[in-house]
Design brief:
By secondary structure, the chain is mostly helical. The chain has one domain (about 1-270). The chain has helices spanning about 1-10, 40-65, 75-95, 95-120, 130-160, 175-220, 225-270, and strands spanning about 20-25, 25-30, 35, 35-40. Strands 1-2 form a two-stranded antiparallel sheet. The chain has a two-stranded antiparallel ribbon with strand order 3-4. Helix 3 crosses helix 7 (about 225-270), helix 5 (about 130-160) runs parallel beside helix 7 and helix 6 packs antiparallel against helix 7 (about 225-270).
């Protein structure tokens, strides 16, 4: 019975995909098949994140188009984040001339990652960014933006040759070193984006694993005497509360890191080395 209870309410459920959706006070609901594809919990969370983005930023964009000064604490809060991403992340990393072209992508990926991170912290939610398939897709989108930016700025040949930095070596060594450096840089281009996906996935997964371990202490002492069970349960619950606050910080931090690194990679593609 204890094992079933642990499995049913384990925080690891936030990072493991299921064909069901847990609704507070209702229970688990089976998700349907759509065109032969099983709808999963992560798909629902990603859809909710996308709908929240539309619900917030379409009215914000219409408001900004009508008025030069945004009014209201809610809209000002989101606009301040948008301006921060533009002035402190995109423009320093990409440059004023190119940054505005990629701001829609950077804004979208920041808030999408952030919302996916935060949805895993609410009852019945799940952390879609704790799944490597989700983070790999996001990193693949950044890789696509990098390639498009580089090809648009320098052309296909120029983008590929720009991957190799200038080598201050005798001319006789360049025919040997340049192909080797080209292979290394192309591999590095893909490795950077693999690391980008793994970093987000690992951080979100690790947080929920730690929460699961700490909560597991309460199950191990469930049959113990009260003088043992009481302090352990109190310490476990207190630890989970404190770590949840840390997870809240990590949710914002990882969204920032993913967006900032995406901007750095795009900036490297549009500037010659």
């Amino acid at each position: 019975m204890a094992d079933e209870h642990a499995h049913e309410h384990s925080p690891l459920d936030h990072v493991i995909d299921h064909p069901t959706l847990e609704v507070p006070f209702v229970g688990e609901l089976d998700l349907p098949m759509v065109f032969g594809i099983q709808v999963t919990r992560f798909m629902v969370m990603e859809t909710i994140a996308a709908l929240l983005l539309l619900a917030v930023f379409i009215p914000l964009a219409r408001h900004a188009a009508r008025q030069q000064v945004t009014r209201g604490r809610f809209l000002n809060m989101f606009e301040s984040v948008l301006v921060f991403i533009r002035d402190k992340m995109a423009r320093p990393a990409i440059g004023h001339h190119h940054a505005d072209q990629f701001l829609p992508y950077l804004w979208t990926v920041f808030f999408f990652v952030l919302l996916c991170n935060l949805l895993g912290m609410i009852p019945g939610g799940a952390s879609a960014t704790g799944n490597i398939n989700v983070t790999a897709t996001l990193a693949l989108m950044t890789l696509g933006a990098v390639v498009v930016a580089g090809v648009k700025e320098m052309g296909p040949v120029g983008f590929l040759t720009n991957l190799v930095p200038h080598m201050d070596v005798p001319w006789i060594m360049k025919p040997i070193l340049w192909p080797l450096m080209f292979v290394i840089e192309v591999a590095g281009l893909f490795i950077r984006h693999v690391v980008l996906s793994v970093r987000l996935f690992a951080n979100m997964l690790a947080g929920h694993i730690v929460l699961a371990v700490i909560l597991g202490f309460t199950l191990t002492v469930s049959q113990a005497a009260l003088y043992i069970k009481g302090p352990v349960i109190a310490a476990s619950v207190g630890g989970v509360v404190l770590l949840s606050l840390l997870e809240l910080f990590v949710a914002f931090l990882q969204a920032y890191i993913f967006t900032f690194l995406s901007a750095l990679f795009i900036g490297a593609a549009v500037h010659s080395h």
